[in-house]
Amino acid sequence: MKTSPSASVKKQALLLLGILMLATTLRVTFTGAAPLLDMVRETFGLTTAQTGILTTLPLLAFAVVSPMAAGIARRFGMERSLFGAMIIICAGIALRSSGSTTLLYIGTAIIGCGIAMGNVLLPGLIKRDFPGQVARLTGAYSLTMGVAAAIGSVMVVPIALHGYGWQGALLALMVFPVVALLLWLPQLANHTPANLSTSGALHNRGIWSSPLAWQVTMYLGINSFIYYVIIGWLPSILISHGYSEAQAGSLHGLLQLATAIPGLFIGLMLSRLKDQRGIAVLMAMLWGLSALGLWLLPDYASLWVCIGGFGSGAAMILGLSFIGLRTGSAHQAAALSGMAQCVGYLLAAFGPPVMGKIHDVSGNWSLPLLGCALLSIVMAIFGTRAGRNAEISTPVKK
Description:
The protein is mostly helical. The chain has helices spanning about 5-30, 35-45, 50-75, 80-95, 100-130, 135-170, 175-185, 200, 210-240, 245-260, 265-270, 275-295, 300-325, 330-360, 365-385. α1 runs antiparallel to α7, α9 (about 210-240) packs antiparallel against α10 and α9 (about 210-240) packs parallel to α12 (about 275-295). The model is unreliable at about 200-205 and about 395-398 (pLDDT under 50).
């Protein structure tokens, strides 16, 4: 029996709605906890470095679980694997909100495992089911993630302060994966095996000896390092400068909203540039300006978070574009993607606890912010190399 055109359009619309709702869960369930970290720290008497581990655990989960996602999808199908990822996230949220120190850490790590699955599989699903609209839907997907993360950051502090505590506020974030699960139910009838990269591509050792591959990886990795330091500690930084918890939560949301904005037009700009060195350096330096601004002129924090968020979002899109632009085949792109994701998340995982420890030793956020500013210069240097018009498999063009 043939499917009518109207039924086909409805099916595509439901799939697109499900994809966008899945996208909302891939950041908010992680970053939405940041405005509450001071409350969590006071409840359990944690040090700043111990609290920073709550930001590090999901990043470690990303690095460990991401390489496994393709194999899981090949076995169970893309749709069912994504449904399972949402269930994992819900379970992690429930454990994280229980009020136990041990379960706080365990639940946070479990959330990271679910997000890692979604991070790997959702872009592949878009490429499989909407091959002619990848750029547009990737922009919509990025924008949706940023908007949802902003909403989460803004809503958690009022919930906590209105009698529900930080546990209730963290539990409230479950609304995102629960709605995603409900909207994804119609897709469970499909369980097409995922045609993702082969294990040989993912374990291509040759990519690890390429200087250009390392330049792309480090550009992405340092951007992630700075992003997760700022996203993890921004509320604490702002509170130390006299902002209220509610104001800090709102600015935390503004930062994440700013990261989503470049998805609307950066892709179009990149398609017109043969050499991306200039824009790569500019986006890195925006991070430096943002960090210095938060340190020296915290009264203008709204300006600095917008500048930093925009630079970070654009640098992420740029770095991901490098993976395709600097490789000569799909297998090589898969190998570089695996390398960049693994190294980038491992590097980013060290950021929050290291900067938290520096804060504990120095007693303020000046050195961590200065460190982020200096790292942005290193990131810009890697951008001048990664942005050249070259491919890993061909000689570099001067």
